[in-house]
Every structure is written in structure tokens, then in C-alpha cells.
Amino acid sequence: MEISLFTKCLFEFLGTFVLILLGDGVVAGTTLKKTKGENAGWIVVTMAWGFAVMCGVFVAGPYTGAHLNPAVTIGLAAAGLFPWPDVAGYVMAQLLGGFLGAVMVYLYYKDHYDATDDATTKLGTFCTIPAIRNPWRNFFCELVATWLLVFVILTFTTEGETPQVGMGSLGAIPVTYLIMSIGMSLGSATGYAINPARDFPPRLAHALLPIRGKGTSDWAYSWVPICGPLVGALIAALTFMMVF
Known about the structure:
Elements: H1 5-31, H2 42-64, H3 70-78, H4 87-108, H5 110-115, H6 119-124, H7 135-156, H8 172-186, H9 196-208, H10 224-243
Helix pairs in contact: 1-2, 1-4, 2-8, 3-4, 3-7, 3-10, 4-9, 7-8, 7-10, 9-10
């Protein structure tokens, strides 16, 4: 039975919501004050982000292949593996899921946001902040990490016919390891957005929510985790077409 575009977009929304709820949730749980997981560290964060993607794949995979990421959707379309007319619907669903996921994290950890004084820590639970601020280097880092993500996803499409192409085409466990590996190996420089829906909608939520002492949403940096992943995905599509 053919799945309607509305149903696909609905599951992209739900999968991305789950991804951001669990992903931003672990950052909040390890950095905000007075949580049980405070100071749990980078390994916990990278592992939990891998599991967050796995859960998003479980939700969306059977219906969409689980893109959960505008860079993945655009990269697949550029490689000729996803119809361009469907891109806008997928991307809008992903952005909305990312926004509401971040809002839910705030509501869940509201008392801990109130207990935390540092504005940068609060911002970091919503979106990425580079370890060393060097925008063009940060852009390069996001480009390379996303290139790896999308290229690996694309290579799995050569293994056989996959009715829905996306992160789910790798399988839930391999994609978990891939995200963990990217986070542990390449994520320390920028916080590895590798996904505009992971950074822009939560940053917007930070700007709109009545967070006590939240400070700036750092819009001056926001182009990096949007443009870096998108350019990386397009280069991955070009690389895939050249190689395969």
C-alpha cells in the first residue's frame, strides 16, 4: 500500500520530535544544576544522542526511511534517491518536530533551568556552541561531519533495494554506532549539529520561551549549523554519484 505524503511528513515530525526530546534532554540532564546526571560527561552525551537517533529511526523508519534531518533529505534528493517535490514537506515536518522537542525539554527540566545561573549552559541545552569560536573553521567541521553521515547513508543504498531511503536504511543499531562515532571522533569542536533541525528550531525555541536569565540566543553563529550540514550533504551526494 502506498504511503501518503501527509503520513510520511507526520512520521518525520514524530521521529524528529523523539530525536530532539532525547538528544537535547541528555544535554539538559548532564549540564543543568541539581539534576541526577549533572556532570555525567561527554561520553554519556554522545551515547545518548546515538540512542536518540535510534529511537527516531524506530518511529519513522517504516514510513519514511527516517531522514529526521533536512541535510539528509536534501542530500538524498541531490543524489536522485528522493523526489524533490517532497523535500519541502519533509523539511517543514522536521523543523516543527525539532521545535516542539526542544519546548518539551524545557518544560520537563523547568525547575533545573531556574536553578541554573549560567546563560551559556542554558543555551547549550537547546543548540550547539563551538568549543573555540572560529566560524569558518566551525563551518568546515560541520561540513565534514555531515558529509560523513550522508555519504555512509548513501552507500547503504547500494546494498539492495530499499523502499524508503534514509538513516533507517542502515538499520537501527548501525546508525546508532555511526552517530556515536561521529560524536566521539568529530563532535568535540562544534557540538556536532550535523542537522539543521537539531539546531535552528531549538535555538528559536530558546529565543521564544520565557527562560529565566537566558541571555542571547547567539543568532550570529546560527548560520554555521545550518549551512555547514547542507553543504556537506550536497558534497556527499556528489561524492556518491562520482564513486558509484
